[in-house]
Amino acid sequence: MSNSLKLNRDGDVAIVTIDNPPVNALSFHVREPLMQALIELRDDPSVAAIVIACAGRTFIAGADITEFGKPMQQPELRAIIATLETIAKPTVAAIHGTALGGGLELALGCHFRVADTGAKLGLPEVKLGILPGGGGTVRLPRLVGAVKALRMIVSGVPIGAAQAHEDGLVDAVFEGGLTTHAVNFAREIARKGGPFQPVRDRDEGLKETDLAAFDAEVAELAKKARGLDAPIACARAVRNAVTLPFNEALAAERALFVTLVGGDQSRAQRHLFFAEREAAKFPGKDTSKRRIGRVGVIGAGTMGGGIAMAFANGGYPVTLLETSHEELRRGMGTIEKNYTVSVTRGSLTEEARDERLSRFKGSTDYADLADCDLIIEAVFEDMAVKKEVFGKLDAVAKPGAILATNTSYLDINEIAASTSRPQDVLGLHFFSPANVMKLLEIVRAQKTAPDALSTAVDMARRIGKVAVVVGVCHGFVGNRMLAARGSESEALLLEGATPGQIDKAFTDFGWPMGPFQMGDLAGLDIGWRNRKARGQAAVIADTLCEQGRFGQKTGRGFYLYEAGARSPVADPEVETLIREKAAERGIAARAISAGEIIERTLYPLVNEGAKILEEGIAARASDIDVVWVNGYGFPVGKGGPMFWAGLEGAGKIIERLEYWHRQTGKDVFRPAPLLKRMAGTGSWEPDATA
Length: 690
Ligand code: T1G
Description:
eight-stranded mixed β-sheet, six-stranded mixed β-sheet, N-(1-d-carboxylethyl)-l-norvaline Dehydrogenase, domain 2, binds (2S,3S)-3-hydroxy-2-methylbutanoyl-COA, globular, 3 domains, Rossmann fold, 2-enoyl-CoA Hydratase, Chain A, domain 1, 19 strands, alpha/beta
């Protein structure tokens, strides 16, 4: 047949095995021989049944995403599935690993599906800004019902084999020996005789669909779409499966797919899919890795406790060190409470909670870190304190142990230089809450050894983090750009914009929340302390802090928070304070548009990213996008600040930056040379040509 597809016989059962590493994507060089094989087997009277299986670690993980945006070579997946459904003899998909997207759709084109106990099945297209384009929105509801199909397709989250069996998506689940079981299953089915109904002709899942309840669920899902088109399209396509004849629903799905796949949102989300994987391939990646058996975490406060949980969740034994038993008890108490909240919410079983807690060992003695292979400190953000900690680590840590700091801003080269082993020192900058936020900035210091870096990147994947390797500068990539984004916040307030107006400009852009609501959530006192340490001022935020208005935790910040509530309420007192401070500075309020707000916040964000690229602090523009989408909630439908700059137009950004530079004289508005190059070449690559 071909390198990507093998054809074998087990008696009267034909076995088609797809072999297209690493994930058996349905690339053209798979689709072509697959179509030929199915036609050949359909017409072969000696074949009683057909099994479609995959070699390697997984069943088909979907269409080949690298083919999107290029002319689609025939046969398309839809044609292959249509051919499958012309086969009268039983067809069985043997699923292991992950059957995702087009892979699950191909399996839905078979009469039957059998799965390995560890298999997962899903339609994650929505995460790429599209919807299933191979009939998944029309066939899946026919097996599992409209509401379950809606939830699977709009969330893009796969389900396990047991759930799939319970829901009627798979017909049998086997532990091991999948292909043999699949062949026996197929043979038995053939022996019993047909006719065998293709999924398209089955409607058991559609009967008794309560459209009112379905529509109510869609309305709820739509509220969370935050400007993304794909979730809405997915819901509409599933509804069509209920209300339209099969072929009409299929045609409608195709029309929605074609519209979405050519749109900016899908381009942005596909960009992010590959960007996250590229970010783990940092320049100088070393293949050798150090073994991480046990992890030491110094500090059981908010960050230290969250970091310790992240490692325990990833299966690592953790030694948690605090300065006193009382501090240790408090820290462990918070960790236990967090896990119990997850159990109460149903996202964690009691057994899993107990298992994770069993991985913790508490101590107040540095000597107990001697058996740790990775030690990370999350102590007070002060250079002298950090150096004292690293001095102790230098004395007790085993040779080759990786010594990491969770600092958000401080110079890691200086910290490394204070030890006898700078090659083992790097930054692991987690984002709060560390056990939840996906982003991990792995900070490469000047002397960090390549194998130490590779080990950290590998570890990040194991604890479910999205790792981006960054260089040393004040604030690394994310926080340095955050400062640029916020540099005009106070000026905008003094000139007439309210916190609510600025936050609305952000949420209308697609951010989960705006900067002032975010400040109230994180605590205004954090920024206040940082500004005081650096001799800086922000008259509005400082005044609020002097009044004890730290945000949600004090019930008042930029906004008011009713007791126990988290939703912000505009506070006339704050708006009066702003107007008073403006009057003291002779600033008269004026109307400020949402466009101006975006220009004075997000254009400096892009510009700072360009400077970071020029300085080599980030290796790629797409790394910066990964930081901002996973660490700060930049809307996925815009692909991250650097991808969005391409959508917005670098020329327009430069023109407006230069305008605001003339108005304010601020350096954040001075266009970076690389941004100007990008305007000419359309690429962030420094050596790109126009
Ligand atoms: N197409 C092309 N390359 C893919 C790919 C895909 N679908 N999936 C993964 N890769 C590459 C990936 O870039 C990486 O490459 C390598 O495989 C290993 O991936 C018609 C239109 C399957 C759960 O969205 O979720 O079907 O970096 O690092 O962590 O309706 O890959 O090694 O060069 O992620 O073990 C729908 C996407 C497509 C699934 C495995 N399917 N993939 O995770 O490995 S659209 C998806 C994943 C579609 C139909 C529509 C994960 C995985 P490199 P990896 P992993």
